[in-house]
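Collaborator request, handled under Task 6.
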Amino acid sequence: MKRIGIALGVVALVAVVAIGLSQAGGGEKQGKSAGGACGSVPTRLEGAPQPLADLHEQGCDLLDGGPKAFKERLAALKGHPVVVNKWASWCGPCRAEFPHFQKASVALGKRVAFVGVDSNDNYGDAAKFLEQYPVTYPSYKDGSNTIAQVFNGVVAFPTTVFYDASGKLQYIHNGQYPSEAALRRDIRRYAGA
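C-alpha cells returned to the collaborator:
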C-alpha cells in the first residue's frame, strides 16, 4: 500500500513538471540552459538577437536596480518593440492573464522584448509565483512602485505598456487581458510587431 502511494506521488510530480514546462515553452523541447530560475530557454527562441537573448537567459529572474536599471534595459532594447507587464503575485487578474504572456513571449520572443515589473510584492511570494507561471523574461522588483512611475503604470494591477522599436511609449493598458489574442492584437497595434 505504501509503495502505491509513493508511485502515485511520483506520477503526480512528473505530471505537474510536464504541465509547467509545456505552459512555459508551448510544449516544445527545451534547449540550452538559462541563467534564470526557469531552467532553460525554449528551442524556439534560440538564435534571437542578442538583446532579446539576454532577456531569455534571465527568464524568471527577479532583478534589482530600480528605475535606473529598468531605464538602462529599455535603452539596450532600442531597435526592438518592448512589452512591459506590471504584475504582483497577490493580484488575481495578474494570475489570470499570466498564461497569455507565457505563450506570447515564446511565440514572439525572437522579435519582441518582454519585461516584467513585480510591484508591491515580496520576493518570496513573487519567486513562488514565477515557479508556478514561468516566463522567458525577467521581472524587475518594484516594491514601492518607483519603476511603474517610469511608464505611468502606478494605478492599476495589472498594467501593460507598449514601446515601439524607437523606444517611444505608445500605449498603456490598465487591467487584465482576457485572452492571448487580445494581447497579441495590442502588440501588433502598439508595438508594431
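The cover message to the collaborator said: "The chain has one domain: 2-191. The first helix runs from residue 2 to 25. Please let us know whether this matches your experimental observations."
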